[in-house]
Model the fold of this input.
Amino acid sequence: MLLSAVLIVRDEAHCIGPCLASVQGVADEIVVVDTGSLDDTRALALAGGGRVFDFAWCDDFSAARNYALDQARGSWILYIDADEQLRPYPRARLERELAEPGLAGATVRFHPRSGYTAYREYRLFRRDPRIRFSGAMHETIVPALDKLVAEGGSIGASDLTIDHFGYDGDQSHKLGRNLALLTKELSRDPGRVYLWWHLGTVERDLGRHAEAEAAWQEGLRRGRLEAPPSSGVALCVSEMAKTRLARGEECADLLAEGLALAPDDRFLWWLQARALAEQGAFEPAMAIFRELATLDPTGLIGRTAYDRRIFGAGAWAELGYCAFRLGRYRESELHYREAERLDPDSLEFRAKRVLAAARATRP
Done:
């Protein structure tokens, strides 16, 4: 048996069916560990071909995932959640990818939410007792894989693609749980910058803005000590910069430091361009927006995911705004026309294109 798809679930009746259907034909077995569902999750998992096991929830995602690994029988593990789905993928292609000698694991293309680009996520790995999850929240197998790589193993890259839908819609019901688990995990591993970013977003969504800023500042402080900086650093800087821009505050120094730590982060590029435009520095802002406009988000796989709206039509619209503010109305019209071509359903782009055209013909 080559591949076991492994899930931990709780009250996932609304989404587990499509998830299990998506792994059929790719995985040889489906292992579902239920941590206390009160809905029809268990019955749907059985109907979807899963081997279902029970695990008493103990506020530790790693404990549940490691129990699930113990139930798997395949040579390889694909870990996936019920609110995720595999895109169609040829089984023969996956077999070739996993046949590479010495592989301890492989990354996949992962879209963390609808409308976002992909990044590489560690979701495929050998069934090996040395590979276990760690961390009560945002559990990870990376430390275990790093040890195997240090011993001569390697990490491959599959084009298998996972779409995550769990962040679509209201997340308020998870805030209390996440706050408790993040606080617990940070007491154990305070150097993990990504956790400080997530803690800040939870505090923000709870309306505690000073606490959110403090969490992101702590993430940035710890990120300065990393070599190289992790992707969490750019996330912390982005959240602080967004907040300051929304309040009309200066954030040039913050963005400069963020770009020094993460020079390839496209969202920091976009924030810098927005900050420049707010200051009236339209020409340098346009240089950044022009580069974002020409990037193809479909094939982009960065260290983190980006909202697709900062590319393509969104970037062309920003160019239209800058040109309009510079009084270059014909140029503005052309930029908005390109934005409208890429997003023909946008009434905003259409209206702004018409306005720019009217200004261009004014005596």
Notes: Strands lie at 3-9, 29-34, 50-54, 76-79, 84-86, 103-111, 118-126, 154-164, 301-302. The CA atoms of residues 92 and 295 lie 31 Å apart. The mean pLDDT is 96. DSSP finds 15 helices and nine strands in the chain.
